[in-house]
Specification:
538 residues, alpha+beta, Nucleotidyltransferase, domain 5, six-stranded antiparallel sheet, five-stranded mixed sheet, 15 helices, 18 strands, 20% strand, flat
């Protein structure tokens, strides 16, 4: 980029059918132009030669090549070329651009926007948008406009709810006049929060607006699932639970209410994630009985006495075989008592926990049910919601909606100030949990979007690979490097017998192995496939 050379990979679906992607092409002294589309749809970007021929055109879909050409729109470049790329499983082309001048400085991104619409009805294909409001993460209004419908003349049912009459929008412009402005805001946003996103985005989609669905957050479903165990809950009810009062069915007020509700969801997730990463063991559904070390010692002594009686009974069986009727049940009871005594000693701290597997370490209980919220935690969460409410109200007073006001500038933050993931807690960098696997030897692996974890040990997914194979094949694959990671136990690896297999997770500086019996082989293979898939995405 310092030399003015850019290279990107993009799918063939992001270019139009008029572009020849089957062979290599190169053109010099080209101009990047915009190709307007009908019905207010997003303009295409094309490469035009000095003779005026359009040789390359990308559609309005947000892609790598569109983002590159957008930086040079309206400018001339020294060279542009593309060729088929065979290193991908999907049809892909590699595009290269050379320009001696610098690209245009694009508008800074917005961390979060919240949007809401008021419509003439509930059918996106037949009804139209009457009002659209968009705010940023601080509650400031980026867009708040009312629009005149194109073909709808009356909407009595909707008017009773949103209080927007045909007379009040008779002199307003159509929403198609603001298509570019709305699309710019959606493109700049890193995160788009919408209450009941399916409804609002369906109306925007009918206008030809496009957005990456991966950055959409449906506040209604997130809040309902987090606090009520269901998908649907009214915005007025959710806002009331967050101690926020507002004028409902006003799009700007609905946006700010949605922001308050989304803030509470974020606080709840951070609190839950912090508890998962702490060393506190979640409270089980049934309250366990309190055990003391003295009780564990007494139970152990009684178990040894029972063992002595079992030995006497077994010895008596040599003289009186019919005593086997008593001796066999007594031995089984003695075995169960020994197991229970061992668990009691581990729970009370008299002995260290032990596992049958190769690895020994504390086992996390990340799949355990979430702990009940205590009074202190509920009060803390309530104060956070009140603070967010007060901040939104202060911002609303300082930044009243102005229909004709330009979009406020967002201060640019240098990348070196935002890239501080190394200093963030683990739950902020590893991503959300993808899958979990528990081996038959006591091992317990947890896979996240960017990391994999076993006990207290955690590694990034860069260079990680997972396989499922029998013990004999795994032993043949053991190298000196893996021996150093796994230990000399790898040289005496248990060979295949009875149909069991072994799941191996290997990275640049670690190697984990878990046993999978016949009935768990399918789960192990699915887990290995998910690890490899996540590793490829890094």
């Amino acid at each position: 980029m310092l030399q003015g050379k850019y290279s990107v990979l993009t799918s063939k679906g992001s270019v139009t059918e008029t572009t020849d992607t089957s062979s290599k092409h190169m053109f010099k002294n080209c101009t990047i132009i915009e190709v307007p589309q009908r019905n207010g749809r997003k303009a295409h970007l094309a490469v035009r030669t000095g003779r005026g021929d359009i040789v390359f055109e990308t559609n309005g879909r947000r892609s790598a090549i569109y983002a590159l050409l957008e930086q040079f729109a309206g400018q001339q470049v020294e060279e542009f070329s593309w060729r088929p790329y065979a290193g991908s499983s999907t049809p892909t082309i590699e595009c290269r651009l050379y320009a001696r001048h610098e690209a245009k400085i694009s508008s800074p991104d917005i961390d979060r926007v919240v949007l809401d619409v008021e419509t003439t009805g509930l059918d996106p294909e037949n009804d139209e948008i009457l009002r659209l409001s968009i705010i940023d993460g601080s509650g400031a209004a980026l867009l708040d406009e009312t629009y005149k419908p194109g073909h709808t003349t009356s909407w009595p049912d909707a008017q009773r709810i949103n209080r927007i009459s045909p007379a009040s929008v008779r002199t307003r412009p159509p929403i198609t006049n603001d298509i570019d402005r709305i699309q710019t805001l959606l493109d700049r946003a890193r995160e788009v929060c919408v209450y009941n996103a399916d409804f609002d985005l369906a109306f925007l989609g009918e206008l030809g607006l496009r957005m990456d669905t991966s950055k959409v957050r449906d506040t209604m479903r997130e809040y309902g699932r987090a606090f009520h165990g269901r998908d649907y809950i009214k915005l007025t009810e959710a806002a009331q639970e967050c101690s926020y009062r507002y004028n409902a069915h006003d799009s700007l007020a609905d946006c700010r209410a949605t922001l308050v509700v989304q803030t509470r969801v974020d606080n709840h997730r951070e609190r839950t994630a912090a508890k998962i990463n702490s060393d506190d063991v979640p409270t089980p559904k049934s309250k366990p009985k309190k055990e003391t070390p003295a009780q564990a010692r007494i139970y152990t002594v009684l178990t040894w006495i029972l063992l002595f009686l079992c030995v006497v009974l077994v010895a008596t069986c040599f003289a009186a075989p019919y005593m086997l009727i008593i001796a066999i049940p007594a031995c089984l009871v003695c075995r169960a008592c020994f197991s229970h005594a061992k668990d009691m000693r581990e729970r009370t701290g008299l002995s260290k926990p032990s596992h049958k597997g190769k690895h020994s370490g504390p086992q996390h209980t990340e799949n355990a049910p979430a702990p009940a919220i205590t009074t202190e935690e509920a009060e803390y969460e309530r104060r956070l919601a009140i603070e967010a409410t007060q901040a939104v109200r202060r911002e609303a007073e300082l930044n009243p909606p102005a229909p004709s006001a330009p979009i406020p500038a967002v201060p640019h933050v240098p990348e070196h100030e935002t890239a501080v993931n190394a200093d963030l807690p683990g739950f902020m960098t590893r991503g959300s949990k993808v899958a979990k696997f528990k081996g038959d030897d006591g091992t317990d692996f947890t896979l996240y979007e960017h990391a994999i974890k076993y006990g207290r040990e955690e590694h990034r997914l860069d260079g990680v690979a997972a396989t499922v194979e029998d013990g004999e094949a795994l032993q043949e694959r053991i190298t000196l490097t893996r021996v150093a990671l796994v230990g000399i136990f790898a040289l005496a690896w248990q060979k295949k017998k009875g149909g069991e297999k072994w799941l191996s997770v290997m990275g640049p500086d670690f190697c984990w192995i878990a046993k999978a019996d016949r009935k768990h082989i399918g789960d192990a293979m699915k887990f290995a496939a998910k690890i490899n898939d996540q590793a490829r995405k890094q």
